[in-house]
């Protein structure tokens, strides 16, 4: 038996603000909200259906945004990679910038096929090549 990746936790100052950014970025919804904690994820299943799906195989994880007092100090040791599915990489970068992301420099050379951004609280993320028809094929 193996484990399943079911949640990603992200410490932040303002869970509600980051939930707004990430739900728009990923097309997800708020699944649960309480003071200092917001869970976001794909819209959909009730708990019993989700449990059956998790036991059967990998499912998209949810994301917990948890309020903490301390600020982010250094580059993340782990980050999220996003692949646009219905537009070009550069169009997705512009959309994310309009949602509140910023460009981030983590030492890239400029020759990379991805773009490094940071969410509104500075957590790095990469926008990879587009998976949209006409941009990517197998």
Automatic annotation (TrEMBL):
Domain Glyoxalase-like span(s) in chain numbering: 8-128
Gene3D superfamilies documented for this protein: 2,3-Dihydroxybiphenyl 1,2-Dioxygenase, domain 1
Short name of one Pfam family: Glyoxalase_6
Sequence intervals crossing the membrane: none
Signal peptide: none
InterPro entries: Glyas_Bleomycin-R_OHBP_Dase (IPR029068), Glyoxalase_6 (IPR041581)
Protein name: Glyoxalase
Source organism of the structure: Nocardioides currus
């Amino acid at each position: 038996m193996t484990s399943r990746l079911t949640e990603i936790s992200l410490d932040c100052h303002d869970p509600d603000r980051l939930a707004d950014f990430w739900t728009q970025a990923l097309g997800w919804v708020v699944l649960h909200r309480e003071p200092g904690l917001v869970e976001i994820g794909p819209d959909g299943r009730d708990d019993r259906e989700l449990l059956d799906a998790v036991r059967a195989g990998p499912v998209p994880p949810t994301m917990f945004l948890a309020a903490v007092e301390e600020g982010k100090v250094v580059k993340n040791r782990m980050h999220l990679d996003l692949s646009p599915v219905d537009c070009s990489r550069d169009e997705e970068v512009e959309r994310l910038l309009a949602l509140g992301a910023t460009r981030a420099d983590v030492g890239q050379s400029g020759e990379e096929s991805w773009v490094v951004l940071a969410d509104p609280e500075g957590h790095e993320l990469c926008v990879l090549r587009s998976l949209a028809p006409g941009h990517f094929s197998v």
